[in-house]
Amino acid sequence: MTPLSWIFLIYIAGCRASATSSRDFKSYPTTVKTFENDTVLLPCYVEELEDGSKARVRWWRKGKLLADSGEPTVSPPKRVRMWSNQSLEVHHVQPEDSGEYVCQASRPAPQGHVTQVHEIEVMYPPSVQIVPESGELEVNLGEEVDMACKTTGVPVPFVTWKSKSEEIPLLYDRWRLRFHADNHNMSGRYTCTATNGVGEPAIGYIDLRIRYKPEIQVEKNWIHASPGIRADLSCKVNAWPEAKVDWYFKNEKIVYSPRMMKFTTGLLNRLIIKNVRVSDFGEYLCRASNSLGITEAIVELSGVANPAVFKKESHSISKTAYNFIWEVDSYSPIIEYQFWFRWRYPDGTRGEWHKLFIPSGSEAVGPVHARSFNLTGLVEATHYEALVLSRNRYGWSRSSRLFKFSAESSPYDEDNDDRIGAIPDEKSISVVQLTSMSQHSPYGIYNGASRLDLGKLLSIFLSGWCIYLIV
Length: 471
Prior knowledge:
Layout: H1 3-18, E1 31-35, E2 40-42, E3 56-61, E4 64-68, E5 80-82, E6 88-90, E7 99-106, E8 113-131, E9 136-140, E10 144-154, E11 158-163, E12 166-167, E13 176-180, E14 188-195, E15 202-217, E16 222-224, E17 231-240, E18 244-249, E19 252-253, E20 260-265, E21 268-273, E22 282-290, E23 293-302, E24 309-310, E25 315-318, E26 321-329, E27 336-344, E28 354-359, E29 368-376, E30 383-392, E31 395-396, E32 403-406, E33 435-436, E34 449-453, H2 457-460
């Protein structure tokens, strides 16, 4: 049998006897919790033998002999010594000194050997080791993220995680963080913090990057322009890895020049066209590509007018008439307007659209064109909706936003329902005589105004193109 096996058997036997032979020791088994660089004294007080002599005491740790009272020539390890009363002193303790220390007392037969076990627990601040060690982690969108924060310290550290300064709620303390990268906004710095009440917390950082194909945002997908001016088209591109962005026109990549210039500032990509030509009008393609795919978005450059905007000065002028005022941004003169209106019933259903062509009444070059128009013959206590389209030399604009109005005697109930629905392709009222309003109108600053009495339309267009049942 090897000496190590012998020591092990002695240790086991001693442990079994300690419960019934504690009377052999004047000291008690103890666990000493201490801090780094402290000094610890482990007692081993054994009853004297019958002849008054002292038992031989040996101290063991992990099977290695530390000290022997019967063999003074045994040299204890550095920072360890045994006192004359058989106590063991460990000086300037370090974390590696933690563990069990066995005091073994040898006595002549039939008493044999007895042991007593003490333990040192050196408490020290936490430390962390991040996984991956580089502190950087890249995954594709939708893949699993697996990061860790391995800790050391006594007591066992408690680990918390934060992302973008917000704590990640966990059901229990976890040193390993796993989740699916379902959104590229999950990219960023993840911070793990380990605390155990000893010293300062330990902190580790992992920068997560989620790879995804480009995403394009276009603030304005329609740009109004005119020959001779400067146009600015833009698209915002998010991607990782960083995307390559180019502009295309009529399915061909644009050859950049002093007249057509490309600029990139952060996520914003711009195409500047100096001295716009009519041939420049059309759809431009912002194309972004990286190793994960290609994304495209369209920005249209057009000479047609911007959508009209109804002014808040629009108001009811009687129980059966309403004055509309709108403005249009257009670098070219407005030729005419389409004015559409319809009934809106209390249950939310809509009537058929009716359309009027209204001359612009102005030769102003722009860029702001204003129009005032009176719609009469309305039905009292009835709700209506209207919209306007404008035409310049380049064609018809898109429609304005839906404008809701009602007769004076029935205040309109706003419900935020802006449904326009399909505008029918019906024959229009092609000839309507419009007479100007008095120049003393409070809105005389606008470029003319018109008045149409719809109450007369039933007789005028009885065999005509549209019939308005205004009662």
